Amino acid sequence: MALPQWTDQQVFDQMNSGSTWPNPVITYAFPQSSSAYSDPELAEYAAGFSPLNAAQQPLVQLGMMLWDDLIAPSITQGSVHSADILVGNTANTDGYAFALYPRDGGTVWFSSHHDNLLAPKIGEDSFITFVHEIGHALGLDHMGDYNGDDDDGPSSYQDSDMLSIMSYYGPGMNRGEGLVAWGDWFGADGRGHSAQTPMVNDIMVIQEMYGVDTTTRVEDTVYGFGSNVQGPQAQIFDFSVNEYPILTIYDAGGVDTLNLSGWGTDSLVNLNPGQYSSVNGMTNNLAIAWTTLIENAVTGAGNDVLRGNAADNYLNGGDGQDSAVFSGALPGYDLSYNVFSREYAVLDLTAGRDGTDTLLNIEYANFNGFQANLNDLTPAVYRFYNADLGLHFYTSNNDEATAVTQLNGFAYEGEVFGRSVDGASIPGADTVVVQRFYNQATGDHFYTAGVDEANSLMELGGAWQYEGQAFNAYGAQVDGTTALYRFLNAESGTHFYTADTAEMEAVMQSGYFNYEGIAFYVTA
Question: If residue 257 lies in a helix (H) or strand (E), which one and from where to where?
């Protein structure tokens, strides 16, 4: 039977125990003896007490830091005699670990009968158990009405550790597949891995309970390969250290980058808040908190799909055949290409959710179901001039334009007119195919939309070599188009094209070119 889909409010109502610490600083400590526990209700556990060992303490401290990053109050280590939260081991429990809410004293206990809790590791059940129990000590409930062995099944589709480490279900728990939100968390090492931070719904709820920490990593932060996150959290956010990341990023400011360049597997990247990415051969393993904006993403050698957010994103696809995904239809965007930097700029004209994105090393774009090669989606036709040869060269091919900038003798003269682009052509306009020919004797490139003229040149052969389709233009003038004028320099045998009326008139008056009429119609 399908489980209900819960709203965010239902998730909050379930996870909020109604108990929080009231002070701006929450303290914790590691007792060294059972005498630290004065509550008689803890006497049984205190009788089996042992202090956290040298392997446990740093990872509990790291877990505290992860929660501290999220909320307005500070969480810091304090004195055993005055700390809010005491953390220790006990032999007197049949369970794995447990913790009390703030109203009940906030103590945290781990069973000393479980070796993995005594030697915890990031990415395994032991470490996320530490983070889970700290969540209880801060006032979070489970994602369902269960506790310990009293477990009668998941509450909802959202009852998954993919969304909340306070759940008993999900891919990390290996329970509830087909019922709750799921991901493939098996790594290339053949092992299953566990979450390493509070996840999207944990962050949503704890920040609603305590307020948002507005000071966490407000500088420009890199997450992933080449991470500049310092301190113990580097074990989580540096992917050269944390090889199998399963986490949610919370960040309070700066221009931030998700760098996945160290992997050759296909990545599916979504920078939108509250959404999940699938990286390093796993699925739904990397999320961004609702209150976080990550501006940039870099991927590696795989065939990657990148989706930006409302910010001005910089998306670098690296090697492979990569795609960028946009939310709207192509006519709602302006696309341009920088022939020198090889970067595409994609501007959302509709005040929609995509902002202005810069793309590098990305071959394809998907606009609301319409996908094409980026090279075919930019309308600009570029013009170059070779003063030594006295000729102009035109191309709409972005890669070719970049290659020409690297040739000696060719000066870039800019985007001189626009072509027809599939998916964004002028409605009702008749498009025509512009064919390109090359004359090796003169160095001239000739462009024609006339079928008879093109066929004639093909039949002539000789000096004119057919180079294929140059681009699409328009066969008649309609609103939004302008004439492209064609000239021939009879002395050099070279052609010149312009859609600029003032330039056309100047060329006519120069005496060097013969006017041959309108070649076809283009956009200005």
Answer: strand 257-259
